[in-house]
């Protein structure tokens, strides 16, 4: 655990940084919170100021700025472009509303063909994410759901990893955790399903790399079929070299390696561990994010509770007020959903802060 003196070196911005979990990273590499140089701190301020000038107000906290800067080797202009591309993508999916309102009611049925779930933590305290691709039957899945809903579920789970999963894991570990440990099981992937599976891998990797930078800690691809190394060499061409270094591929004989990374009691029995959740590990969502000692409501959970607490007449009144604010057949500018945010003045220079702040509402 980082010392208090080290934690005080984390430079935060009082306007945007309201964390309620540790912010000092155990990753002792330049560019990670608690291990930044004065130049990198200045680049965080520069990137945030440039985005404010473009009218952005959300997700400008220091941890987010650092993740985008690390993903682009602290090139401020490249990081700015990546952030704006991500915000455009978020607006396309209306993510801030999606994560609050999306209900994947077909989850248990889809998991019969494609289990994808978070389950407890590895020895570094990170959430473990597991996908089993060998059972994928797209024809059967499309009878239950749609490609759009399956993609939205993937994205919503990324959002839930950011909050509440990682904050809860950080509180339990006593230091900042920003990444997950992924196990991707290819058992049963044959020639007939290979093209759809590898196409999905490319799509999912693109979403992760482009819109959720610096979220992958380690990835273990297990039960890789013959010929996978050739296909993976092709997939690697679309990935950042830093990402590629985090990926480890195994045919069989992976159990000892997984157990070096994940405690046996946290690893499902199917992968060499001892865990057997009562209703199945894939549906349990077990982890610190459900432990009252470490869990706190995510921003989207707070928003959902507030929505559910509103009376129907209050919602109708708000909707009517929103419609009335849009001028009819007028040349005046109107504030509507999806419009670009108003220009904001740059924030004051960041100030030093301790490692524990109130969680942001993004």
UniProtKB/TrEMBL annotation:
Residues 303-314 have a biased composition (Basic and acidic residues). InterPro entries: CRAL-TRIO_dom, CRAL-TRIO_dom_sf, CRAL/TRIO_N_dom, CRAL/TRIO_N_dom_sf, PI/PC_transfer. Residues 332-362 have a biased composition (Low complexity). PROSITE patterns: CRAL_TRIO (PS50191). Pfam families: CRAL_TRIO (PF00650), CRAL_TRIO_N (PF03765). This is Sec14 cytosolic factor. Residues 303-362 are annotated as: Disordered. Residues 106-279 form the CRAL-TRIO domain. SMART domains: CRAL_TRIO_N, SEC14. SUPFAM superfamilies: CRAL/TRIO domain, CRAL/TRIO N-terminal domain. It comes from Eremomyces bilateralis CBS 781.70. It comes from the Eukaryota.
